[in-house]
Amino acid sequence: MTETLASVQAAGPQAPSTDPLSKTTEVDPAELGRKRFTIAVLIGVIVIAVPYVWIACDQWTGKLDPFRSVSPSNFYELQAHALAAGRLYMRPGSLGIEAFRHDGRQYTYFGLFPSLIRMPIMAVTQRLDGKMTGPSIFLAWVMTAVFSSVLIWRIRVIAWGEAVVTRAEAAGHGILMASIMGGSVLMFLGADPYVYNEDFAWSVALTTGSIFALLGVLERPSWRRVAACGLLVLATILDRSTTGYACVIGALIVAGWFAFARSNRESRRWAFPMFLVGMVPLAVSCVVTYAKFGIPFGLPMADQVWTSINAHRRYFLAANGGKAFSVAFLPSTLTAYFQPAGIHLTSVFPYVALPTSPARGVGSVVLDQTYPTASAPASMPLLFLLACWGVVTSFRRHGPGRVYLTRVVILVAGGGAVGVLVWGYIAERYLADILPLLIVGSAIGMVELWRLLATRSRGLRVGALCIIVALGAYGVAANVSIGSAPTAQFNQNQLQNFISAQESFSGGALASQVITGSTMPYWAPAGKLFIANGCSGLYYSTGFSYNNSPGQQLQHQTWLPVELAPGIDHLFRAGFNTPLQAGAQPVTLLTYGSASVLMQPVRRSAILISVLDPGAPSVTWPVPYSGVVAVEPHRQYLIDIRTDPVQREITVTFGKEAVIHHYLAGTGPAIVHTFDSAAGSQPPWVAIKNLPPHKPRLQLCRSLAQSVAAQHTSGS
After folding, report:
1. What's the structural domain count of the chain?
2. What does each C-alpha distance from 298 to 88, 96, 132, 285, 365 come to in angstroms?
3. DSSP track, 161-199
4. Are 358 and 372 in contact (CB under 8 A)?
5. Spatial separation of the C-alpha atoms in residues 560 and 528, rounded to whole Å
6. Count of C-beta atoms within a 10 Å radius of residue 678
7. What value, to the nearest 5°, has the Cα angle with vertex 540 and ends 493 and 433?
8. CA–CA separation, 310 vs 100, rounded Å?
9. Exposure string for 532-553, b = 16+ CB within 10 A, e = fewer
10. What domain range is 290 assigned to?
């Protein structure tokens, strides 16, 4: 044994063996780090996908529906049809109050990108028209996950190189991804699958993708990276102009960075390509905007249909020089979006909610519309705190590695947030324009945190991870709660399921939220319940205020009906014999005092429903008639006419869509016209059948009324 060892030592170093079976398997630390990071990020996204999919596809309906949507959900399909026909304008009336009038035609202010990605599907089938908003928002959510994860890794490489990723750091990045995908406003956007939220969902995804691409060009320019950057910036500006302009400015800054040799001289040749990356999307956006509105930038707010209808909108524009953007709004928007206590904690399920009343203006400023809005620090604390640290790290004089490269993308993300801060409109969904700044900032902050902890004690690292877990878990819980709470788009089934859950999980605490009386108040804090006239109806308050829209206030639209007494809903089934003839005899479906509901044909395959003489005061908005409703021959349609004397509202639902919401004066009674007579007595263009009314049981209302009575008894 000794002789063998001596001979080996004498022989000196040995050449490595060529026998593959004798090779020692060594794990590359960089590869191990990437693997740990990838696994942690995937786990974070998959865990969050469970509540996200439930909120997006179910949300108290009782069934998972990937095509769930709420109105309006067809604007992008309408725009896609117009693009396929070689035009930008749409049929008059199809966009309702959202339309902008220019040169006698009507246009949408929404971007083209969501319409463009629909066009390949619509070329094959039109059966999904109006049903693609939910899947589109989900796809945007997935793309946000992809772009956020690769952005975090790119920032780590830039700031820290290929240093080993420990298990604790990987867990921290997984929690960060869970916070981005579920502990942020993305949950709220998924809750209401309609065009307003789809716009923002894609803005988050595309802005984050553009930031990733811009940082990649700064890190190591190549033709592939420049081309990808150009496509992403173009997609961003075609989706949402404010964040798109920020990305354009970012591309021009990068071009200047290269042109003035902020990097090495070899990189100067990338200045002109990056100049084109900024200018080509900007030129395309200007052409589209000019074709729509006759101006290259901005929106002519005076030309919107809503402006011609709503007196407050006109007052708002007059008070602000005809513009909806102003730095005078900054105190109000900064307070709403960044105050430390901008959330509502309650003993009633789901325990965390949006503020119970709309955001308020600061000072004497006149705002357009405001809604209950959570602040970023209160609803997204992990992202906000890490982002603050990340911004400081990025602009620190001697930051780690090449972290100075992130300054440009911090400015891009911050520029994208400026639009909502100077816009005289405050709403929860507008936090989405601030989210890219929180994503890139928190990524820098998380990387810097673990870089500093790398040389610290194990106990300190464990403590830091516990704090990250606590803040991340709170953010997820808060945003899942916000996303699961009722919105103005909830139907009765959703409300009943939600309030049943509240009653089960909150115990007697829910009784404290109940108001009783014979006269419904015009407004109440969000989450309040109103029991009318000893359970003739149960209603839920959204907290939305309609004091700037008199017609909606008269209808008590702050309140959503949960349970209604018998005699409120009146059901019909109609089948149409096409081709219809415009001018044919209208059919009266129902009368209520002096009011009557008429249905008449207006085209070969379209009808109009209207409410005549609904009573004083006269209300111009909402209008007492539907838009033109397309019908198919021999198909059966359900018509529900609701005459609610508590809300003072008449609602007409045709199929699954409410086509009329209008003020209804008087006390009735409602008289349903009977159509169960011989077919010859009905108009030749339609066959109508009366259906038996629903028999509501009012279980929730009675249960809550008993809880309120018990509470009063124990209190006395």
Report:
1. 3
2. 17, 21, 28, 11, 21
3. TT----HHHHHHHHHHHHHHHHSSTHHHHHHS-SHHHHH
4. yes
5. 11
6. 6
7. 90
8. 14
9. beebbbbbbbbbbbbebbbbbb
10. 32-484
- Tell me whether residue 384 is in a domain: yes
Instruction: Output the six-digit token pair for 628.
Output: 């033109």
Closest CA to 468 of 565, 537, 541, 383: 383
**Cα angle vertex 707, ends 701, 712, to 5°?**
125
The predicted-structure confidence for 306-334, as pLDDT tens digits, reads as follows: 999 999 999 999 999 999 999 999 999 99
What six digits make up the tokens of 654? Answer: 């045709």
> What CA–CA distance (Å, rounded) separates 181 from 142?
9
Q: Which amino acid is at 286?
A: C
Q: Is residue 95 part of a domain?
A: yes
499, 455: one domain? no
Neighbours of 596 (CB within 10 A): 18
Q: What are the start-end ranges of the H helices in 294-380?
A: 305-309, 311-319, 330-338, 376-379
Predicted confidence (pLDDT) per residue in 650-708, tens digit: 999 999 889 999 999 998 899 999 886 555 567 888 999 999 988 888 999 999 999 99
Element housing 210 (H / E): helix 195-219
Q: Is residue 167 part of a domain?
A: yes
Predicted confidence at residue 656, as pLDDT, reads 85
Mean pLDDT of the chain: 92
Q: What is the 3-state secondary structure (H, E, C) of 55-71?
A: HHHCCCCCCCCCCCCCC
On the question of pLDDT at 1 being above 70, the answer is no
Domain match, 175 and 190 both = yes
- From the list 391, 378, 515, the residue with the least C-alpha distance to 443 is 391
Reference 560, options 535, 541, 536, 534; nearest CA is: 541
**98 found inside a domain:** yes
pLDDT at position 25: 52
Question: How far apart (Å, rounded) are the C-alpha atoms in residues 544 and 196?
Answer: 17
DSSP string, 662-707: EE--S---EEEPP--S-GGGS-TTEEEEEEPPP----HHHHHHHHH
The one-letter amino acid code at 225 reads R
